[in-house]
């Protein structure tokens, strides 16, 4: 199947590690022009080197960007346009907010999570839309969480704002369809990343267990019997954002090995 991604311009936020890095790698394999961003320049430089070494794709750029800051977002999109002429694909990704229960969260925690996990997506979409509308095509993929289908204990902030992403995407799918701009949401289940290891560590401490015990117990609840690989998640993302997808928009997908029981 030809994904029609060669030479397409792709922005990936939070792209220096984890799911963002895995997604950037898969786009680079398809010959796309990729810009990755995060707040850590050292990690970005290493990721660029790793991707170029593995794929031979020399059209991988990076930019330091704090997506809670509108000026950084504008600079990132301008960089993509200056480098590649336009933006064909936007991958909205952000680190998870702090874990905890409702009683533990302050107004500052709520505001930070809103800016990081919802407002940043809104702002980045706003910046790329003029280019996508002008060319009458584009793909936007928002990373969320399996909590868009089933809330996760001790993640009240994530549960709240990840579902907001779904509402945003569903509404925009209606508004942007006439411009041939497709927007979808993807939620990872238990995919083996540093963020997941952090959450497993918090759970282990809370329950007085080892991380290995926590992981083993969770894997037993996953029909496929294991945590997913970042590349498995990324391949789904790349398909949805590719020229092979011409009719799927406004949808939410959970990549979780069958773990979530909700429809």
TrEMBL record:
Statement: the UniProt record of this protein carries the keyword Oxidoreductase: yes
Xref: Pfam families: adh_short_C2
GO molecular function (one): oxidoreductase activity
Oxidoreductase keyword on record: yes
Entry-linked InterPro entries: NAD(P)-bd_dom_sf, SDR, SDR_fam
A single GO BP: bile acid metabolic process
Keywords: Oxidoreductase
Gene3D superfamilies membership: NAD(P)-binding Rossmann-like Domain
Family: Belongs to the short-chain dehydrogenases/reductases (SDR) family.
Name the UniProt record assigns to this protein: SDR family oxidoreductase
Organism of provenance: Chengkuizengella marina
């Amino acid at each position: 199947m030809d994904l029609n991604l060669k030479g397409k311009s792709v922005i990936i936020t939070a792209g220096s590690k984890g799911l963002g890095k895995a997604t950037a790698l898969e786009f680079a394999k398809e010959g796309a022009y990729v810009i990755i961003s995060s707040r850590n320049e050292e990690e970005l430089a290493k990721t660029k080197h790793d991707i170029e070494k593995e794929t031979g794709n020399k059209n991988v750029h990076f930019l330091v960007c704090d997506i809670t800051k509108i000026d950084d977002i504008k600079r990132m999109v301008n960089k993509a346009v200056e480098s590649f002429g336009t933006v064909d694909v936007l991958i909205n990704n952000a680190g998870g907010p702090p874990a905890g229960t409702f009683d533990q969260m302050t107004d500052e925690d709520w505001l930070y999570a809103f800016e990081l996990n919802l407002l940043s997506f809104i702002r980045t979409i706003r910046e790329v839309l003029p280019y996508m509308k002008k060319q009458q095509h584009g793909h936007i993929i928002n990373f969320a969480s399996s909590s868009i289908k089933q809330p996760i204990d001790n993640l009240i902030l994530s549960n709240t704002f990840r579902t907001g992403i779904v509402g945003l995407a569903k509404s925009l799918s209606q508004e942007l369809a006439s411009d041939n701009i497709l927007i979808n949401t993807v939620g990872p289940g238990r995919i083996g990343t540093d963020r997941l290891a952090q959450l497993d560590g918090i759970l282990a401490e809370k329950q007085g267990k080892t991380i290995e015990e926590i992981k083993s117990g969770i894997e037993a609840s996953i029909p496929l019997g294991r945590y997913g690989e970042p590349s498995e998640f990324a391949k789904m993302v790349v398909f949805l954002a590719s020229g092979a997808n011409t009719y799927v928009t406004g949808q939410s997908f959970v990549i979780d090995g069958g773990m979530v029981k909700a429809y």
